[in-house]
Amino acid sequence: MFRLLLKIRLKGLGSAMISRLGRNKKKTALAGVLMTLLILYALGAVGLSVGMMFHGLAEVAALAQLQWFYFALAGMMMLLLGFVGTVFMTQSQLYEAKDNELLLSMPIKPSAVLACRLAAIGVVELAYTMLIAVPVCVAYCLVMGFQPLTVLFFVLGSLLLTVLALTISCLCGWLVSLLTARIQRKNLLSVLLMLAFFGVYLYAYAQLPTYLEKLMANGTEMALAFKKALPALYYFGVACASGDWLRLLAVAAVCLVPFALLYWLLSRNFVRLATQRRTAPKSRLRGKLFTSSGPFKALVKKEMASVWGMPMYLFNCGLGALLAPVGAVFLAVKGRQLLQLLTLSVQNGEELTLGILCLMPAVCMIMTLFSAPSLSLEGKSFGLLKGLPVKAKTVLNAKITAHLLLGGVPLAVALAVLGVAFELTAGQWALLLALPFSVLAFGAVFGMAANLLLPRFDWVNPTLVVKQSGSVMLAMFGGMFVLALPLMVYFIWLIPVIEITPFLWLCTAFFVVLTLALLRFVHTRGVRMYEKM
Description:
Layout: H1 2-14, H2 25-64, H3 67-95, H4 100-104, H5 110-144, H6 148-181, H7 186-206, H8 208-217, H9 219-229, H10 231-242, H11 245-275, H12 295-308, H13 311-317, H14 319-333, H15 336-345, H16 349-366, H17 382-387, H18 392-421, H19 426-453, H20 462-468, H21 470-494, H22 500-532
């Protein structure tokens, strides 16, 4: 029974990776090939960035004879990424799963239900661990050479740290579930917690070189502090660097004993945890005047409400919009001196600074993906939406407009911060506004077109559509490619020919033309595709 439940759970987790395009086998095969290429591209990009970072750390660690700290930092990043990636998954898949009561009503042991859920989450934890572990191991072997015992200890230790990350995620997921169940605006709190966890991970990742520099300057003190604060990671690093089996056994004890205790407690209380009612305080009804609105405005409000009502939708598809003001404040506070030095040290440095100010929010807008899964998220209610006396063009335009509003407000804040902080002229203000907003419009229409091409309505969990559907991946990586293409052309061929500012205006015109072409596609062929769904 456990194997069957685990198979069903893993199949459900991976079911949204490839959208079904009807019964046409050629289209389905093509979608599978495209999805495979997108996944390989994403894994390659992440692996390359992590590998480059740790390759430099490995070289410094080799010179300073601090190999243990290299592995300890890698273990810390694996723990953080696994925790951030699954803490809310444990909340939704373990404690608040919609099919908990259905499964418990069947002749299935609660321990089997609990074990299959933990195993499925553990598989996801392992995938996050491998995102860090593989490039870390490759970087170490490139610098130090292949050492079989070190690689073996690193693999075993990484598996143990995956178990520890699962334990921490389960505990924190339970706390988040309790916390969000007792307040009215639990969706807003969930989003804030996601941002806090994600911010901690980004900060820790950015501070890796700083940690190594401090260790080289104060090696003994830092080692003692690391040992006291994070003993599991310290023993993990020492075990990998020295091949000490006793230290590896200590890591195993620190990772496995808490998990065994957690599993024992959950197995004894799983029925109560899975079936208890979590009710927030009731809000008081206040009399107010209701006004009618047209169908377009009502559909836009519906889209906005669906985004705010689903924290994973807002966080995964709106991460770029959330990062835009944060990045602008960082550039205004921390990046001004660096950009001023760049202006003085590089030819046409002032134009290069303006280019950086324009491209930072533009990249954030490419990462804003609200329209990409918006049709798929209608799910079983899509038939009700089609049955409304509203034109298909109006529905599609409403979803695009909601994307523009959700991304445009934080973008306006970010651009205001950058423009005021760097005291831009009127012409520079115009370019600062034109390029990011044209990229925002392109992303909204491109995401809508991607969802029309790759719809998915037979999902079980909407989170899978938001995080893993073909339309979301096509919108993200396709948009990044479209944004990077003119930049690559410029840096390879056009630097001697045209200056940065005119080139950025050409990029703005390029995105405007591309947006209009995609909008025409949505309003013509896209409408016909919508009506045939």
